[in-house]
Queue: 4 jobs
Job 1
Amino acid sequence: MGNKKVIKVRYRLSVIFFGTVLIFGLMFYKYLKSTTLEDVLSEERTITVFSENTVKKGSASDSPDGESDDLTDGAEPTSSAEVINPVPESEAVGEDYLDGCVFIGDNITYGLASYGIVPSGNVLASASLSVTKIDTAEIDTASGKKTVIEAVSELLPEKVYVMLGSNGAAYSTPSELYISYSSFLNKLRIASPDSKIFIISTPPVTKSKEDSKESPIKNSDIDDLNSQLLDYCNKNSLYYLDLNSALKGDDGCLSADSAENDGLHFKKTTYETFVNYILTHTVG
């Protein structure tokens, strides 16, 4: 008797299970018969499209250090406007344009102030400043000695021009320089988020500097660094000025007539070319 009761219970459960499956199957078939392709296409759907320049916080990039080129700590891109790089030639603006700019760099940039081309208060540079030291080195400002980031945080300029890479190029690889450079740029963008930031390509050196026995610098290494900087600018909506190409001769080097005897630093006439390039490559 016990076995018969078990069999009856199992039989009833099987009937209930198959009956349930059959009911759901009939309901699903009825739904398919009553739903058309037009009904499906008319449903409201939201599609999110990410552009190449969208900042993905914490995402990985193909930068040499394996870290992201994008900002961290919740900061936003410097500009959401379309950026064309290198910045194309534009109608020349007056020299008063320079009054609203801050220039960051090493001893080449410092020459803008020492030659009286740009007011000294607009130049955050020193003879010893380099990419690898820029986070910690202090420079003289109107309000005392400060790091570049501290000074920019106080000034909050409309436009910032950065030209680094010459100091240290003889001792560091392009990838090593880029790691320090991109790290500094990330901090700069956080310190002055509303500034238009222009990265000026690292300028070339003369043929004699390339062949020098003491601290030679290869223009091919400078080109490598500039290529990485251009990529950074494209990813992060910064402006890139190709001064390097404007200063190169047919041999791919800086003309000896444009440089001091060391083959690296600019003569005053080269600064005129430098400033003219800036004034004819602006953005609205």
Note: Residues 30 and 45 are 25 Å apart (CA to CA).
Job 2
Amino acid sequence: MAVARFLDHLAAFVGEVPTIGRQSSAGRVRIEGAENVLSAYRTGGVVLMGLHLGNWEILSEAVRQLGLQASTFYEEAETEVQTRILREIRQDVGVDLLEANATGLRRAMRELVDGRVICLFADHLRGGRIMAPLLGRPPEKEGNLAIIARLARKARVPVVPAYVLREDDGRFTVRWMPTVRFSDDCSDPLADVLMLNRLIEPPILANLDQWFFLDDGLN
């Protein structure tokens, strides 16, 4: 039953969080499509478009495993203790943290121009409402899909979607999807949102029992 698998997944995720930095060295992380992000990185900065699938914190470990320099946005967790733990985990694997505000976005733009990787998760909630994936709803000019497109266009860098899945043997697979490069034509920002949404919906729908926002989507 999908709901039971989802609950098992959440329980496993909580237990895994303190061990993120050791998963790769223990041989539990398999990477697919690394050439996609590595070839993009050789040309300059990259926007890494992550998804809250599997244990998404392992994306930071995968970035380090590939020898890349990265920064990611963070928001306050439900408690101060949870926020501190998550900050420490991400910093321990060599990821710099950006505030989820205008100051953080300006810093992200500078880092992209300087050739770094910026990680921003496409699927997210705002005010208790799922902003992405759209799942049949009309696109909006707000939300992370729009921010990802604007960052990539302004910095003239590609987007590489990526996600993590938990396998039945207790290991993880990190999948780097094909690189997205925007054209110079930006006449319709909503078209960018729709295009990125078409990339993130299939892996989410195919792995709903590992999607963090499944319970929010059912409400």
Note: Residues 2-212 form one domain.
Job 3
Amino acid sequence: MESKKFSIRINDGERTFFAPAGESLLSVLFKNGILVPSACGGNGRCGFCRVKITDGAPDFTDSERSLISESDRLHRVHLSCQVRIESDLKIELPASTLNAKRFSGILEEKLLLTSDIVGLRIRLVNPEEIAFISGQYIQLRSPMYDGRESSIRAYSIASPPSDRNHVELNIRLVPNGLCSTWIFQHLQIGQKINLTGPYGDFHLSGSSAPAIFIAGGSGMAPFHSILHDLIGRKIRRDVAFFFGARTQADLFYVDELNRFMQENPWFQFIPALSNEPEDSDWKNERGLITDVVARYFPDCSKHEAYLCGSPGMIDSCLKVLTRNGMPKDKIYYDKFA
């Protein structure tokens, strides 16, 4: 006997389909061409596959309670991998998720930017073009290698939207990381790469308020894309970009960003080093990036801030910016998992 089926209604009927009882919502969405971000294969570990269920949601699982904040749970956010189809559901998904596609590409360039960050340039093959907004990210899949399982990881796009035929990425080597180890040690020029996207809602707002960018390490990527896009479209908007690193060896794109600063009076690049030897030739800022930001902007109440980096860096920046007068709703961030 055929199992009972329930309706899945997305964004007030923008998409509607039926699914058999017992399947996971994540699996059902994938089968219907909706590529919800996920990095753990639907095992309830990564916390990426979030959806808002406005009607028909089951109780939260233990995995959901450990990965979703109380505030998000109150807003009915669930992990789609943990939701089993047991009733009709109404869900809300961002446009980026509904529009995400599968892509295959060929690696054209692989450049070591620092000792633990590599730059990739991927030429898209199928389809040959991608449309995205500066600040968004893709998910890249590594194959099985050395007896290790396939994995999926999210990486911000570093190239500008004007180049629709390529995707550039800045990827940091994570110790024992499945995907980054494959990229650093196994991925070769000319090799095929599979990815999905674009995803995310991290991008410049439509306002003209002066902006403070803060990043460290591979958090450079979305700002590299945003700056190229602003310059390419001849948009003038006051931007101060603070980039934190330990030593000079951890800096990259410096010549390019200094050139941007010389050619565009609205842009200021402020790199700061937290562990540079005192007797080095470094003439710019030293110390934690949060302290440097506080010195430059003791009052940032008229600014907006855009942050990309580790959870610790993001949390420290939030404290500094709000203490110096910036409203919380003017702070936008992309926090690495």
Note: The mean pLDDT is 94.
Job 4
Amino acid sequence: MRAWPVVIGMALYGLVMLLIVFWPVPVDSGMHARALVQWIIRTVPGMTYDRVEVASNVAMFVPFGAGFALLLRRRWTVVLFALLTSASIEIAQALLLPSRTPSALDVLANTTGACVGVAMVLVWQWSRERG
């Protein structure tokens, strides 16, 4: 597989991530985002705001895990890189963005998302090898 499409995709993903994580106010504070979150809570049985937030943090890092798993040979380093990246984001938000709320749960959810991305790549590669 050629790496350049993955590199370009990861660069675009990184730009979007920078906008999301360093937006000066919580991303879900806008009218449209708030309406979407409320719709999800009303539509999905058992869904709460906290569960939507955790699921969003997991989903946000799935491409991180998948992209770096495609680029790096030592896949376990992707999980470590995700943990360090997520912790750095939360620290930066705590220091630079007073309206954002840093959370250890976000670090756990982000790292979980990266693990899901790595697992998806491993399953995909395994299924290709099996024919």
Note: The mean pLDDT is 94.
